[in-house]
Task: structure prediction
Amino acid sequence: MARTPHERRSVAFALLVLTGFVWGVGSAPPGPAVPGPPPEPPSPTAVAAIEQGRPAGYPIGGIDISSHDHRKFTVHWPTEVAAGSQFVYVKATEGLSYVNPHFAADYVAARAAGRYVGAYVYARPDKGDPVGQAEHFLRHARFTRDARTLVPFVDLEWPYAGVKAGPCYDLSPEQMRAWIAAFIGRIEREIGRKPMIYTNTYWWNPCTGNDTSYGDYPLDIANYTKGPPKLPAGWTTFALWQYAPGNPDQAHSHDRDVVNGGPAGLRALAWP
Result:
């Protein structure tokens, strides 16, 4: 995931989508709807690059996005749909107070584009209070038990630039294990299902002391190599593989993922 905290479709787009939902469930509008400008068509170059960039044997792709995906460009949903990006994870919160200002609009836009959608939280062990951080996330995650909502994922990785903490947030492996257990446990109790863990082997193993406790939790493994990723202690397989990092200075460049197990693997991350 991001080396920075993850974070438009423009606000106008989000408002159009939301307005469309209101008209759909309300009585007839007082006058004829005024159509907006047609969406920009998919970029054939970007579509080809996305399709060709997926690791061999993993045809089901998706993206995860945060506020940084709005730094210069927005997510171009027609291109993502044309390229077969079937799922989207959107960063919701970080720490005890931060909420991604683009979360609601991106979440609505991804649903309107017919994608599987889920929320994720960027964990901050340096800020303590794992239960408080988990509850802050749960208040904003828009989690629902339906067949198109993905299980939330917890982003556990190195601090990004600007976080004044060491690689393991200045916690010992024992302290880190206790923090993760409290954080993940609170989310699991709320949703009634094991959340997915996003991590990298070279962070997880040293920072948790090779903790094997989470091998039966779905894993989103970050690994930017051509071959199959090396898995952290405890896991024998992965659910998602983030195979490419995004570059917010380039159009159509987002963190890109593939799902293990094809369509069935993707459905397994949703309800029922």
Q: What stands out?
A: DSSP finds eight helices and nine strands in the chain. Confidence is low (pLDDT under 50) at residues 2-31.
